[in-house]
Amino acid sequence: MNLIWVPLLPLLGCLVSLLLGRYPRSTMALGAAILPAIALGIVVSLAPEVMSGNNPVVTFDWVPALSLQISFMLDGLALMFSLLILGIGLLVILYARYYLSEADNAGRFYASLLLFMTAMLGVVLSANLIQLWFFWELTSVSSFMLISYWSHRSDARKGARMAMTITGAGGLALLAGLILIGEVVGSYDLQTVLASGSLIAEHSLYPVIVVLVLLGAFTKSAQFPFHSWLPQAMAAPTPVSAYLHSATMVKAGIFLMARFYPVLSDTHLWFALVSLVGLTTLLVGAYTALFKHDLKGLLAYSTISHLGLITLLLGLDTELASIAAMFHVINHAVFKASLFMAAGIIDHESGSRDMRKLNGLFRYMPYTATLAMVAASSMAGVPLLNGFLSKEMLFAESLHQETFGSLSWLIPLLVTFGGALAVAYSLRFVHDVFFNGEPIGLEKTPHEPPRYMRVPVEILVVLCLLVGVLPDLIVGDLLVAVGASLMPAGVPEFSISIWHGFNIPLLMSFLAVLGGVALYRQRRHMFNFQARFTEVDPKLAFEHMIQTLVERARSVQLWLDNGSFQRYALWLLLMAIAAMSVPMVNIPHARGSLEVTELDMVALGGALLMIVASVATAMLSHQRLLALVTISVVGLVVSVAFAWFSAPDLALTQLSVEVATIILFLLALYFLPQKVSLNHLSPGRIVRDMGIATAAGAIVGTLTYAMLTRPFDSISSFFTANAKTGGGGTNVVNVILVDFRGFDTFGEITVLAIAAIGIYKLLAGVRLFVPAADMDGRPWSKDSHPLMLMQISQSLLPLALLVSAYIFLRGHNLPGGGFIAGLITAIALIQQYVANGVVWMRDRGDLKFQWFIVWGLFIAFASGVGSWFFERPFLTSWFDYFYLPLVGKFELASAMAFDLGVYLTVIGATLSILANLGKLTTTDRPTRPGRRS
Amino acid sequence: MELIFAVTVGVMVTCSVFLMLRGHTFAVVIGLTLMSYAVNLFLFASGGLALHKPAILADGAEYSDPLPQALVLTAIVIGFAMTAFALILAIRARADLGNDQVDGRALPGDSLANKESQGKMRQNPVSSTAKNTGGKTR
After folding, report:
1. Do B63 and A631 touch (CB under 8 A)?
2. Mean of pLDDT values over A413-437
3. Nearest CA to A913 among A736, A787, A781, A756?
4. What is the 8-class DSSP label of residue A739?
């Protein structure tokens, strides 16, 4: 249970740092350090358990059905990385106390640093793939904040953006890879995945998975050709570089490869990809490092080179190569962190990082110089230091591998050359900075740093020495535990010691040192040669690439999304026609096996009327009123058709909706332009549209015919059989609506409500075009409301309401129900508006139709929730029969309450649409709150 | 009967698609309405065409398929809401953009009509129309 605190404590520390923002820097550093220190204590206390083979695990279920849980596990691999992250993190906190100036916002710095620490700990401790990815992305985001800490500097912003883009893109690839792993294994649980053996490696998706996961790892670990972000990230404050580029950020990619080493490696593809990329990175990084004049630039490329070295080791197919890789992770973290810190001290106390200016500093800061020299020697691989040991192991493993068959002999040769380059740039770091004459043009006289700024460097350098002299004692057990994570089948016997006798690896080390010295002596020639290359600024190249990408994307987007509805509708229709025509072609005959019904004259007449009216609507659409008349003919015949083909409920609904629709259109005519110009219509466009329309119509018509003449299995017999016994009603359509499929209906009235509310918002505060006259110049009539219409409407209202109540009550057994009754009530009320006007209606009770919607939805919902109290699922219906004197036997059903909700919602929605539109020209128009126009 | 039904639906779809591809909001909304009629008929037809067999339970009767009817019933109401939304959107677009084009650009023939209505436009119609309320909307 303690384990959960390990990532949680730094997260809390992040808050502490933010809260301590106004205190002196020492207080703040202390405040930031306490919680991670406790976390380190927890990790150390758990270490014996891990080393004995019991990995502590903490799991909280989140969505178990999707195999999503919050889960942390501390195994050997996670233990090693946690120690590095927390240990070096604490040293960086101390170091940053002296590095940051008064002007820097130390609270923000520590908060970002601890957030990043949380993310890294999350990555290494996660025992769930999706959770791992979450923390992985969090490292990208929090490192963005760290790199861009000096946000006033353009290079910091650009560098941060570049790091974020490249590692973020890799993160997306990683997500795809992890999801594929989850699909193959059937679980996102890391332990299940790691226990799956060769399941992934033998799956047909394996190559895709490997490439995606490695893309994530390579971008994060700055492997060639994704390495260019790392040097740009040097714009960050040096403590950040010391942390990100030694123990954490870039090691996350290494960690990822190590994490999935048991299940993904051991194939030819893995070895070839990983070793080749690692080797290239090793050489490119080491070679480039030699020519960097910036102290941090040199260290940056040397970091890339060492990351390549570790990757190469992970890609070698020998037994101990992965152990050597992990050993070098520790060693590199230790010496590189100290070197970055030393570089920061030099920068801080001399005001420059340019090695052409910095010379002979040994005289000014002998103590720091000694420390830096020891660390640099470790980087070069000088005996008695930790870097020597892991480099020696690399040489040894490179001799045993057979990754490239008969060409395998190239690898030892190339790594020796890489070793020589490392010696050369380390030599340059030491000789150029601390010796080689006097400083040139420094702004201030260099001096030793404050006492405690050196402490972290001292600790790290002592570690270099201790590990270098007594490797087995200090890291032996840890490496065995790490090996257990990497090789679950069993860790081979190994021992790390400084002396293995005179052998080939030692000779290779010797050659590397000799070669390095020789290279450094010949540096003038190499610098001259290098100067002949035109140097490309990766930042500019990157920005250029991004801008090109954005421009391309924009042109594609503008082509697709040009703001024309006609274009969208065209695409949509063409897609629909294409999607439909393929299956239609595969049906041999339109006519199916069912016998057709005999044609009667009424149906034929109706059909002809509909066809004529539809065509007339299409042709007369520019004469708006005529088009409305013809389309209402279509609507009316549709309702007659419903009645004719045994659907009385539909006929009633269609009829009442038709009234509402036509009133709506008439209202809208007033607000839309009266004149429709046809002169811009090109004949080509008309022919094209006719073609598309005919194709669509032919397909739908054929489909209808094919469907009507084919037998089908209906599930409706269930509804007819159970409507009376189960739902208590004889009108099966209504019982389906309010009972069997009540949940669907609930969704549908919600949609209705949303549309009504959307319309209300659209109309609120609309700026209106109010023409004073119609298109022929005739002014609008100012007549008052016709008396006859007023009188008749008013006397009809009670009758109409009575009819709607009747329709509502009988709905369960005879045609009717909430939908139809609601529409009838709405139309009865609309008629009052039409006959009497908005003001007259307002004076007689200002109905707030929005509240009808709210209450309707609430009642429908409550009637569904009610069944929970009887421990039934949502919307289970209930009904029974009662006797009352005078009334006789009657039925009560919970579905009636639901239908009442439907009824109210329909009234509310219809009226709020129509009445709000009608109110637009009056003082009662909907307005935005606080802006009554 | 089935054939003439299918032909009718096909013609309605043809007309509605043609209308939906026009350049003015009014035609598009009319097309949308016509389309929803056609789609409702199509959905309804999936239960087959039955004469004199309403799905009202009675002794020994045959019934038409009630399920498509229930589906279409809600579809009609929602179709109304959708038509209304599209229409109000057109009104709002007219108010905010000054024209009723749906192709994303004002055409040369349209600017004249715009000027005409711009001239008669009143930003704040409330005070002047309050007295003869309702008359405006008929």
Report:
1. no
2. 90
3. A756
4. I
B112 belongs to a structural domain: no
Domain count, chain B: 1
Strand A879-884 relative to strand A68-73, pairing: unpaired
Q: Based on the domain organization, do A744 and A672 belong to the same domain?
A: no
pLDDT of residue A215: 95
Are the Cβ atoms of A700 and B57 closer than 8 angstroms? no
Measured CA to CA, the distance from residue A131 to residue A61 in angstroms comes to 12
Surface of A (429-468) touching B: CB under 8 A: none
Q: How far apart are CA B81 and CA A759, in angstroms?
A: 9
In the block, tokens 């036997």 appear at A889
Alpha-carbon distances of B46 from A648, A705, A715, B56, B66, rounded to whole Å = 17, 10, 12, 19, 11
Burial of B123 (0-12, 13-18, 19+ CB in 10 A): exposed
Domain final position from A521, A555, A576: A521
What pLDDT is attached to residue A247? 79
Mean pLDDT, chain A, as a whole number? Answer: 87
Indicate if A498 and A617 belong to the same structural domain: no
Judge whether residue A878 has pLDDT over 60: yes
**Boundaries of domain holding B79:** 1-50+64-107
H or E segment to which residue A893 belongs: strand A888-893
CA distance to partner chain A, nearest, from residue B117 (Å): 7
Of A876, A859, A855, nearest to A867 by C-alpha is A876
Q: In this predicted model, what pLDDT tens digit does every residue of A116-140 receive, in sequence order? A: 999 999 999 999 999 999 999 999 9
Kindly give the residue spans of alpha helices, DSSP state H, lying in A291-354.
295-314, 321-350
List the one residue out of A645, A655, A628 whose CA is nearest residue B8: A645
Answer yes or no: is A414 within a domain: yes
Domain ranges, residue A412: 267-521
Q: Extract long-range pairs of A889-896: CB within 8 Å, 24+ residues apart.
A: A891/A728, A891/A812, A893/A727, A893/A728, A893/A729, A893/A812, A894/A863, A894/A866, A894/A867, A895/A727, A895/A728, A895/A729, A895/A735, A895/A738, A895/A739, A895/A742, A895/A812, A895/A863, A896/A738, A896/A812
Residues 6+ apart with CB under 8 A from A531: none
For residue B96, the domain's CATH number is 1.10.287.3510
Q: Nearest CA to CA, how far is B67 from chain A (Å)?
A: 6
Provide the pLDDT for residue A351: 84
Could you tell me if residue A15 is inside a domain?
no
Q: Which of B48, B38, B22 is nearest to B100 (CA)?
A: B22
Partners of residue B94 in chain A, C-beta under 8 Å = 671-673, 769
> Residue B118 falls within a domain, yes or no?
no
Within a 13 Å sphere around the CA of A627, how many CA atoms are in the beta-carbon half?
23
Which amino acid, one-letter code, is at A845? G
Calpha distance A804→B93 (Å, rounded): 36
Q: Is A631 on the interface with B (CB under 8 A)?
A: yes
Is the CB of residue A382 less than 8 Å from the CB of residue A506? no
Residue whose tokens read 């406790």: A38
- Residue B105 confidence (pLDDT): 62
The tokens describing A583, both together, are 């299956």
- The set of residues, in sequence order, having a beta carbon less than 8 Å from that of A887 and lying 6+ positions away, is none
Residues of B in contact with A653 (CB under 8 A): 73, 76-77
pLDDT tens profile B54-67: 777 777 677 888 88
Q: Note whether residue A621 is domain-resident.
A: yes
Cα separation, A786 vs A766, in Å, equals 30
Q: Is 0.90 topped by the overall pTM?
A: no
ipTM for the predicted complex comes to 0.79
- DSSP for chain B reads -HHHHHHHHHHHHHHHHHHHTSSBHHHHHHHHHHHHHHHHHHHHHTT---SS--SB--TT-----HHHHHHHHHHHHHHHHHHHHHHHHHHHHHHHHSS-BSSSS--HHHHHHHHHHHHT--S--HHHHSTTTTGGG-
